[in-house]
């Protein structure tokens, strides 16, 4: 059932599942939200613009979603906003079954978050690290995803899914550069910084799963990537540079080479719901060069599985965000 050709009609019934999706108004997050809601889930859409979130809700409703949608403000470049969003979710819902750490930015000119971190690392990794830590008790209180190893109610553990990229291979583990400042700005390469943030997504997702397993928690962590999908991601760098030519070139490349955003969302939805996963897997498109095709469990590079790099990143992330996880070190 879950071999090649897996698509959104194969998603299990998600009635009773409560999910949070970050960056839910656009691209992969929008499509993942639509598919989850279409199968009965309640989705809290974490969006930095509530207006863009409301537009997304209207268009998902037009596409016949059956679950319920709830837009809440979330700016991952601002750790206070992350904490407020988590408080709102905690107060509005009785447990959480799924957290999809999806929002992201790519190859922007040098900038820092309000808290002073290199922007891509701040949004793509640190914001999600803090969010997951804030929501861990809610995930523990969730009833979980219909899954293998299910309890008597037919539900398995709650899940955290973190969206990375094939470009994690470009990333190094020189995380000090992510702390921002003049040296970081002077040495900045926008693609290296994106790669570092996407490597951090993987190191975090795998380390989280090891720590959850060590704790015997009823929550597991997964990673995924969408291949190359036609979204707004590729347009933001050229827009920030004010370059219409580069923007048009990116649009043309997307039109010719990329798969649709809906196809790009399938690895996320597979990682979030497929009953045959147990924890710590990396899911991506199984077709041409991992850029397109139906989702399957795939490999990430050796550095992403390095436990020392993961422990270093974890320690820095706790110190930088001020969010300490109530989890033991991984065995
Ligand atoms: N598309 C691809 O080919 C591809 C390939 C590899 C990995 N990915 C990954 O897929 C994920 C989703 O990207 P996408 O392709 O769907 O791009 P997208 O269409 O640009 O969507 C990105 C989402 O993230 C949100 N976001 C950006 N900065 C944020 C912030 N500070 N706080 C909260 N939300 C913020 C955006 O909000 P706004 O709409 O307000 O900007 C948008 O909703 C990213 O993690 C990306 O790295 C994509």
Question: Would you summarize the structure shown here?
Answer:
With 331 residues, the protein is α/β, with parallel strands linked by helices. It has helices at residues 27-38, 50-62, 79-92, 119-140, 182-186, 190-215, 233-241, 244-257, 261-264, 266-273, 307-321, and strands spanning 18-22, 42-47, 69-73, 98-101, 158-163, 219-224, 282-285, 295-298.
Describe this structure in words.
With 331 residues, the chain is α/β, with parallel strands linked by helices. The protein has one domain: Rossmann fold. Helices cover 43% and strands 12% of the residues. The chain is built from eleven helices and eight strands. It has helices at residues 27-38, 50-62, 79-92, 119-140, 182-186, 190-215, 233-241, 244-257, 261-264, 266-273, 307-321, and strands spanning 18-22, 42-47, 69-73, 98-101, 158-163, 219-224, 282-285, 295-298. It has an eight-stranded mixed sheet with strand order 3-2-1-4-5-6-7-8, sandwiched between helices. Strand 4, helix 4 and strand 5 (158-163) form a beta-alpha-beta unit. The longest helix is centred in the middle third of the chain and has 26 residues, at 190-215. The model has no long low-confidence stretch (mean pLDDT 94). The site of NADP nicotinamide-adenine-dinucleotide phosphate has 30 residues, from helix 1.
